[in-house]
Amino acid sequence: MKDLEFLYEYLEKDFYEALKNLENISGEITEIRIRRNKNVVVVQKGTSRMLYSKDKAVFVDDNRFDEIFLKMCDYSVYSNEENLKNGYITLKNGARIGVCSTAIYQSEVLVGIKSITSLNVRLPREIKGFADRAVKHIFADGVKSVLIAGKPSSGKTTLLRDMIRILSDKMYKVCVIDSRNELAGKQCSNFTLDLGVNTDVLTGFEKSQAIDIALRTMSPQFIACDEISQKSELLSIFSGFHSGVCFLASVHAEGISKIFDRQVSRELIMSREFEKIIMLSDDFEYKIYDINEVLYENSRLCDDNNLLKRDRLFCGEYDFAAL
């Protein structure tokens, strides 16, 4: 899949050609920010810049914005309603579109959105070979669980996708939990992104439910899931560990020390089930850490109280509210 070709059906010709020209001149575009009644901004290598077509900034007025949005919804806002309430839509090739809007509440329950003002196109990337070094280093002595961490747009999904592909092509059984269709880019019954020859994909399910399904029905050696953030997901992952399954998972973190700031990622590390952590930097580089090294450097989190909490978690008695 060419990086920008999928956008041809959603954008007017001058808009699309301007993107292609910029890609040819300046390299990979990672985000395209489309705002109502504003100029288009693109992000390349972490730097934002205006998009120009024939020396004129590409401007998106009301009509143009609404047409782009409707095309991205496949002209059915209703079928995308649940995702829109969560701030995104996913295109059929796996590209995620961040959506800014106004919330509609009834009796303190979010029932819908209105007044769409911004669209952020995050481009899915296939970089085959990106995970080669990590796989050779981590899995040389057998299978294990790996946690991938980094800031938004640092390459977590790209690295995870390539790790899945390599392990799958080595004939490990991998089950991918693709809640937002970003890892596989499923289009009808076909996948537009390469996840290897021995991979099964559950698309669109909530992560916790999909993990449970995978454990019951697919006998995986690895379960892979992107952006772990919910308590329910954490509990399903620990259920998988009890079943002898390894996990490839990603979380948000600004740095290796900051990975303890989020409750879910902290508990994943404290479990000691993840033997390695891969930390991505802004320039798409990564460093591999041993879990014992990370815990030693953050020994304040390894006191008896925290170990007791970990044991309670494994016994099914964990009280998240107590944190």
Q: Mind explaining what this structure looks like?
A:
The protein is α/β, with parallel strands linked by helices and 323 residues long. Helices cover 31% and strands 28% of the residues. It has helices spanning 13-26, 62-72, 81-85, 132-138, 156-169, 207-217, 231-242, 263-270, 291-297, 304-314; strands spanning 31-35, 38-39, 41-44, 47-50, 52-53, 56-57, 59-60, 88-90, 96-106, 109-122, 145-150, 174-178, 186-187, 190-191, 199-203, 222-225, 246-252, 274-280, 286-290. The protein has a seven-stranded mixed beta sheet with strand order 15-12-16-17-11-18-19, sandwiched between helices. Strands 4-3-1-10-9-8 form a six-stranded antiparallel beta sheet. The chain has a two-stranded antiparallel sheet with strand order 2-7. β16 (222-225), α7 and β17 form a beta-alpha-beta unit. α6 runs parallel beside α7 (231-242). Mean pLDDT is 88; it is low at 307-323.
Strands in their spatial order, largest beta sheet:
15-12-16-17-11-18-19
How many strands appear in the DSSP assignment?
19
Given the structure, what is the number of helices? 10
Stretches where pLDDT is under 50 for at least 5 consecutive residues are 307-323
The biggest beta sheet reads: 7 strands, mixed
What Rg, in angstroms, do the CA atoms define? Answer: 21 Å
Q: Look at the structure and give the mean pLDDT.
A: 88
Taken as a percent bin, the fraction of beta residues is 25-35%
Structural class: alpha/beta
Q: How far from one another are the termini?
A: 44 Å
Shape: globular
Helix content: 25-40%
Q: What sequence of helices (H) and strands (E) makes up the elements?
A: HEEEEEEEHHEEEHEHEEEEHEHEHEEHH
